[in-house]
Amino acid sequence: AKADGKNRWACYDAERNAREVARIALSAAMPAALERDEFYVEYQPIVRLPEGTLTGVEALVRWAHPEFGRLGPDRFIGLAEETGLIVQLGRSVLAKACAQAAEWAALGGVAPVVSVNLAARQVEEPGLVEDIARILREAGLPPTSLQLELTESAIMGTTGEPLDALRELVDLGVCVAIDDFGTGYSNLAYLRHLPVHALKIAGSFVVGLRADEPDSVDAQIVRALVSLAHTLGLGVIAEGVETRDQAERLSDIGCDSAQGWLYAKPGPPEEIVRWLV
Ligand code: C2E
Ligand code: CA
Ligand code: CA
């Protein structure tokens, strides 16, 4: 029995080691990849409900890996947060997204607000406000055309100076949204004191919305989140909207905006141009 146990451990360890080696290799490759500019940004439309007109776009980073091809952020954002490289990577995403948004604005018409994800590490980094102010200036983008998305844990975990940084950004005119709202530990009492403009409802709540079950638990949760947001004077964006049925339910509930495959998958900036005309 003892030998058996040993073998199982050996087997488990081998698998785990292989995964760990791959992780470390990917992690180690990131600084050079950043240097070689292998990271690029895709954009996904955010539309107003019920009309379906474009109000914004979310910037989502990808890695064009020379060996493994296109890697999604779930493969490397966690690693970048661990090593701290997220600060530089995040800065590069911000710069790309702001430059792109300025290009769309130059095409005329109503420019979409560009929404960029911010990791906790970035919020804690001294100089964030100056960085973002410089990026906006260099891109020629008004601060009101930028929205930052932070998860509840990224916001709630920070006190003092990081919150001051967010306040300063809001004073500049930048918008702040809480990402994946409802999935973290929401300190609801705290919410009223936070410098935020909008809540993004996680797709995991949207999945359960169906026309034939208007009072399902998910529907009631979404209704409660929308009502909470509106009570606090915040906008609500639903994520992961895949069906017409879900969009209709969200619209009935009073959700302001939606994002998901029903409207468009994340894609290159050229695809957003078609939404502008
Ligand atoms: P997120 O911020 O919650 O982004 C939404 C994710 O849902 C994206 O995955 C998007 O492609 C996906 N999605 C959009 N519509 C649908 C839909 O209708 N159905 C389903 N099932 N999924 C949909 P993606 O691009 O793989 O990004 C994953 C996560 O990586 C993001 O989640 C975000 O937390 C993180 N991330 C992406 N870009 C950045 C970045 O530049 N900086 C940081 N810190 N995090 C990023
Ligand atoms: Ca997001
Ligand atoms: Ca989200």
Automatic annotation (TrEMBL):
<feature type="domain" description="EAL">
    <location>
        <begin position="23"/>
        <end position="277"/>
    </location>
</feature>
<protein>
    <recommendedName>
        <fullName>GGDEF domain-containing protein</fullName>
    </recommendedName>
</protein>
